[in-house]
Amino acid sequence: MKYVIILLGSLIGWSVHAQSMQWPHHKKATIVLTYDDALVTQLDSAVPQLKKAGFKATFFVTGDMDYEEIPRWRKLAREGFELGNHTAFHACPTSPDNPVSSGSYTQTQMIDEIDLMNRFLFALDGKTSRTFAYPCAETTAGGKDYVDSLRWAGTVQFARIGGDVNSVITDFVHLDSLRVPAFGLDDHTGAAKIIGFIKQVREAGGMGVIMFHGIGGDYITTATDVHQAVLDYLKENKKDIWVTTFGEAMGWAMKHR
Fold first, then answer.
1. Inter-residue contact 42 to 215 (CB < 8 Å)
2. DSSP assigned state of 100
3. 5-22 pLDDT, tens per residue?
4. Closest to 34 in 3D by CA, of 201, 256, 254, 247
5. Most buried in the list 44, 79, 130, 133, measured by CB within 10 Å?
6. CA within 13 Å, CB half, 73
7. How confident is the model at residue 95 (pLDDT cuts 50, 70, 90)?
């Protein structure tokens, strides 16, 4: 009898993990396009391509914006794109390219800065519910993990980590809404590699979050023709793939898991 119970328990557990997510409009999988750091090349190159393809995306922005670009970000939000929180100062472990070190922060200071950025974003788009992306995919401040502090504060609804090798998301039952993995790109990643990832997500019936930075310039650059090729593939397969914002995708997944 004991072995029967163990077998049944194993089968029940397996069936929970084997169940695929029921995506909207009978889609087979979901792809989320995210863009970090509020870069001008995103406004100049990525946005026109996204609009032409008919896709909405998430831009995780910092407080490091030129004044003349702020109206463009506000307009983007009004057009249905999502502005996510990427902190005001993008503090990371000390590096030549990142002068603000998260090692000097306390957990409280980091949470306060995220809250401050929420207020700035509210002034841009009038929204009170916010998603978040950890700067440099790091979840520590002063050497201590601040995810649980962020969870307790309720400052953001969902959070993306990024750069995870297991970034094809299929286990939504155990997915931590504040540690959502993403497919991080290297400098000049080719279209074949990005599309290959999308195909994996589609075949698994799961969700994939792609993390872009510069499009046709800036840094960690994705060439504009590569970006266009990715959008073309998604458009060709829009019958099967739901392309939406991080907030929309996570909201659906958490409600229907």
1. yes
2. S
3. 444 444 444 434 445 799
4. 247
5. 133
6. 31
7. low
Distance from CA of residue 45 to its chain's centroid? Answer: 19
70 HSE (CA, 13 A, CB side): 12
Domain annotation for the chain: domains and CATH numbers: 26-256 (3.20.20.370)
Query: Which residues have a Cβ under 8 Å from the Cβ of 214 and sit 6 or more positions away?
Result: 39, 41, 42, 220, 221, 222
Q: Which residues of 165-183 are buried (b: 16+ CB within 10 A; e: fewer)?
A: eebbbbebeebebbebbbb
Round to whole Å and give the CA distance between 251 and 238.
Answer: 20
Give per-residue pLDDT as tens, 138-150: 999 999 999 999 9
* CA separation, residue 129 to residues 132, 148, 248 (Å): 10, 18, 11
Pairing of strands 58-61, 140-141: unpaired
Q: What is the largest CA-CA distance in the chain?
A: 72
Tell me the chain's radius of gyration from C-alpha atoms. Answer: 19
**CA distance linking residue 80 with residue 247, whole number of Å:** 12
pLDDT of residue 97: 63
Which alpha helices (H) appear in the chain, and where do they start and end? 2-18, 40-41, 47-53, 70-78, 107-125, 147-153, 191-204, 224-236, 246-256
Range 84-108 average pLDDT: 84
Q: Measured between alpha carbons, how far is 248 from 62 in angstroms, rounded to an integer?
A: 21
Query: Which residues, at least 6 apart from 208, have a Cβ–Cβ distance to it below 8 Å?
Result: 29, 30, 31, 32, 167, 168, 169, 183, 197, 198, 200, 201
| Residue 142: both structure tokens together | 């002063």
At 107, list the tokens.
Answer: 């957990």
